[in-house]
Specification:
Elements lengths: L2 E4 L1 H17 L1 H17 L8 E2 L1 H4 L7 E5 L2 E8 L2 E9 L4 H11 L1
Parallel strand pairs: 1-5
Antiparallel strand pairs: 2-3, 3-4, 4-5
Helix pairs in contact: 1-2
Length: about 110
């Protein structure tokens, strides 16, 4: 069994999504939080469950995988007995935009 860890950027991503949603519907935000957390925790048992991120596969980058909680994408990488969630974002956004924001944020 693997340990699931969250990168600080992924925590910030999730907090931002939930805060935005909570302004409109706090119950929906709480439900989304539980769905994402449960889906990420399943990676402890089966980290190969997700698909390779298609936009990265096109560049030969195969280390990052994703699982979907519609419309959100949970991107992670796995290593020695650990799965790192690296980002959570709205799948309706362009991956290039998400990565650009991440680089700017530093």
């Amino acid at each position: 069994m693997n340990e699931v860890r969250w990168a600080e950027d992924a925590v910030q991503d999730l907090e931002g999504l939930l805060a935005y949603m909570a302004e409109r519907d706090p119950n929906a935000a709480l439900g989304l939080f539980h769905q994402i957390r449960e889906r990420a925790e399943l990676l402890a048992v089966s980290p190969e469950h997700g698909r390779v991120v298609p936009e990265l596969r096109a560049f030969g980058v195969l280390a990052y995988r994703e699982v979907i909680v519609r419309p959100y994408r949970i991107v992670y990488r796995s290593g020695d007995q650990c799965v790192w969630v690296v980002t959570v974002f709205d799948g309706r956004r362009e991956v290039a935009d998400v990565l650009f924001e991440r680089l700017i944020r530093g």
